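Inverse folding, one chain.
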């Protein structure tokens, strides 16, 4: 019986000179053939032995062996793993450069007494020795190197990856002989033709790594490289190769990944294998779908612990017959920093929903707003099964109760039936006087264009909705009616107050300029203020009621257009209104208000809303987002085990695109063509719709 506790390596076995040196005994080293080792080689052997971290001890049934057999004492303990092999197996294990040492015995089968030097070993000194820390060779190895017995790998996956890369580099094919969680063995595919290449590795209990315990190589067979594929180039190996690419951009196409693999390995791999490799790479980067659902309560819990003020609301369904397990339905969350920052932003919230793509279907509901510097400010999120009246009502109730307790908020959305029904319900909390619901002008115009499919009508409708003065709005609507009466009938079905700025009563504000932070006010506020100030110098102010602060302003003539200007606007400073509606919409004084403030010697900057001040803008982002620690530090919350809803699983096959692109997805040209006849953008004189009638439409109104 042979007992193996370490892989054998003759280059690092303990020699008699090594024994004599470390034990401090004067042992005479017999010169017996090639078995003697020179004293000056002792240091090199000792260093190599420490590097290898232990060797092989081959012991017969009696401790006595032949004098020309080395005995190597392993650095191990009683709990180390032990593998037993019979005599035939041990003969097959000699793959070193030296031939295996023959056992020496007497005629009657008794083993000869060993050399006296083995009797004088200090076992206490040997047992007290410690090996250097074991390190895997994964980082030092590459496919151009040969494999060796005794090499260690962090995991079975690392071992398989190295062996597969080794085989692909040499155009050799392998077959798996044995595969278990703690063991892996392969051999050459041409083993029946005489190639003895084989490898066996197992996990060692002493260090927990996979170690090559048997190895016979290199290959003695040859494969002609005529195939367009390789058996070791499977989806698991490809997934490891493309993992970084997928991590940088998970939308990378299969064709791109196929070309990456072909350029690196020279093989034309099947499309299906690349697809499976990308799926595995996605799992390696983002994790398993079902496990992610179970980790979601832990993530929400640590988010609340590390970021105080974060709000989380769950909706689950208990699983029948399984206590402590629930099925996921919905979750709402708002970061604490966003809840606090909302107090310093304008009370205008936009809501919308988008599709979730993956194994399970669903919708992501989002609430955002615009800060004083024109940036999108994230407010709240929710994952629901679909967009419906029930799901939108649930989201808006959570948003009202946990985030937006203030009154007078303007809620902007598209015309989704679920949103309209939820807002009309008084119990949800978003109906007047608590809030005002308005439609997104861009969505309204897009729906209008889907019906009439006319860019000229679309442009007129958009400009009508953008006007702040009712008289200008009416001019555009008259032009729409002249071109197509049905278009005006379409808008008559909508509440004018919900989609136009002229009748908005100041609840909506469109901020389109690119802005930067100013010293006291944001650059957007300063720029708009300066433009209005330049216009105000030509206005004429008449005082109607000094106590009630009511004034009439007659605007100046507009440049070379002698028929433009001389319009009257009414300003009520005590109410903060101007008949042009711009002051109410933007929160920045218009030219008419600035003319009054200059006439009355009032500091006009005090009329700018506080949301445009730099200190208010900075207060939006003053609350900090604290980092989340590693997952191993996340505590387990008092929450049942969460499972995904199986009814929401996406069907197999290529999914149909759920995002139907329309004209809103088309990028507008940077230079817009404007007609010289009707002054409307989108066409020229040649195809102007008013050309056949012989008269031009009214030019676009100027800002008076």
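Residues assigned per position:
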């Amino acid at each position: 019986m042979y007992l193996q506790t370490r892989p054998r390596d003759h280059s690092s076995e303990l020699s008699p000179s090594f024994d004599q040196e470390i034990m401090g005994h004067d042992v005479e080293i017999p010169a017996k053939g090639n078995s003697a080792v020179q004293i000056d080689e002792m240091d090199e052997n000792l260093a190599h032995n420490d590097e290898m971290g232990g060797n092989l001890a081959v012991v017969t049934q009696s401790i006595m062996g032949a004098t020309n057999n080395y005995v190597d004492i392993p650095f191990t303990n009683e709990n180390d793993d032990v593998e037993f092999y019979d005599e035939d197996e041990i003969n097959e294990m000699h793959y070193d450069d030296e031939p295996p040492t023959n056992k020496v015995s007497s005629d009657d089968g008794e083993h000869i007494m060993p050399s006296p030097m083995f009797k004088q070993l200090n076992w206490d000194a040997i047992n007290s020795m410690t090996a250097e820390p074991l390190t895997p060779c994964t980082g030092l190895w590459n496919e151009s190197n040969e494999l060796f017995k005794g090499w260690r790998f962090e995991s079975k996956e690392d071992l398989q990856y190295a062996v597969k890369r080794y085989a692909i580099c040499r155009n050799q094919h392998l077959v798996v002989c044995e595969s278990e969680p703690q063991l892996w063995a392969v051999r050459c595919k041409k083993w029946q033709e005489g190639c003895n290449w084989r490898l066996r590795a197992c996990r060692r209990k002493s260090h927990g790594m996979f170690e090559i315990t048997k190895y016979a190589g290199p290959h003695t067979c040859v494969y002609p490289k005529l195939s367009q594929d390789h058996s070791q180039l499977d989806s698991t190996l490809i997934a490891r190769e493309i993992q970084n690419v997928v991590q940088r951009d998970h939308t990378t196409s299969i064709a791109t990944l196929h070309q990456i693999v072909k350029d690196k390995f020279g093989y034309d791999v099947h499309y299906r294998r690349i697809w499976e490799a990308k799926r595995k790479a996605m799992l390696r980067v983002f994790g398993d779908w079902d496990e992610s659902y179970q980790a979601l309560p832990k993530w929400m819990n640590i988010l609340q612990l590390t970021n105080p003020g974060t709000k989380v609301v769950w909706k689950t369904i208990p699983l029948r017959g399984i206590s402590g397990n629930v099925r996921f339905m919905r979750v709402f969350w708002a970061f604490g920093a966003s809840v606090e920052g909302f107090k310093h932003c304008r009370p205008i919230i936009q809501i919308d929903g988008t599709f979730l793509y993956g194994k399970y279907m669903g919708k992501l509901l989002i609430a955002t707003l615009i800060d004083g510097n024109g940036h999108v400010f994230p407010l709240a999120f929710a994952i629901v099964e679909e967009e419906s009246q029930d799901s939108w009502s649930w989201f808006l109730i959570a948003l009202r109760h946990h985030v937006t307790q203030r009154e007078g908020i303007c809620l902007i959305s598209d015309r989704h039936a679920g949103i309209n029904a939820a807002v009309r319900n008084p119990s949800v909390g978003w109906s007047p006087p608590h809030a005002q619901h308005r439609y997104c002008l861009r969505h309204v115009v897009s729906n209008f264009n889907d019906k009439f499919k006319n860019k000229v009508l679309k442009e007129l409708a958009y400009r009508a909705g953008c006007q702040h003065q009712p008289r200008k709005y009416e001019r555009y609507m008259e032009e729409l009616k002249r071109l197509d009466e049905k278009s005006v009938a379409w808008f008559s079905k909508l509440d004018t107050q919900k989609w136009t700025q002229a009748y908005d009563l100041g609840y909506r504000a469109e901020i389109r300029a690119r802005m930067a932070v100013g010293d006291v006010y944001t650059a957007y506020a300063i720029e708009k203020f300066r433009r209005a100030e330049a216009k105000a110098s030509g206005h004429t102010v008449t005082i109607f009621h000094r106590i009630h602060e009511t004034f009439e302003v007659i605007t100046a003539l507009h440049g070379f257009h002698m028929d433009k200007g001389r319009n009257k606007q009414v300003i009520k400073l005590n109410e903060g209104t101007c008949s042009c509606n711009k002051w109410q919409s933007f929160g920045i004084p218009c030219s008419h208000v600035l003319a009054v403030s200059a006439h009355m010697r009032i500091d006009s900057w005090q009329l700018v809303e506080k949301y445009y001040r730099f200190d208010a803008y900075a207060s939006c982002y003053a609350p900090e987002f604290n980092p989340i620690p590693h997952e191993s530090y996340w505590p387990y919350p008092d929450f049942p085990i969460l499972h995904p809803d199986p009814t929401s699983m996406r069907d197999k096959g290529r999914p149909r695109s759920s995002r139907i692109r329309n004209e809103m997805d088309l990028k507008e040209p940077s230079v817009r063509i404007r007609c010289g006849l009707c002054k409307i953008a989108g066409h020229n004189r040649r195809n102007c719709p008013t050309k056949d009638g012989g008269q031009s439409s009214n030019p676009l109104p100027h800002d008076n």
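The first strand starts at residue 2 and ends at 4. The chain has 21 helices and 19 strands.
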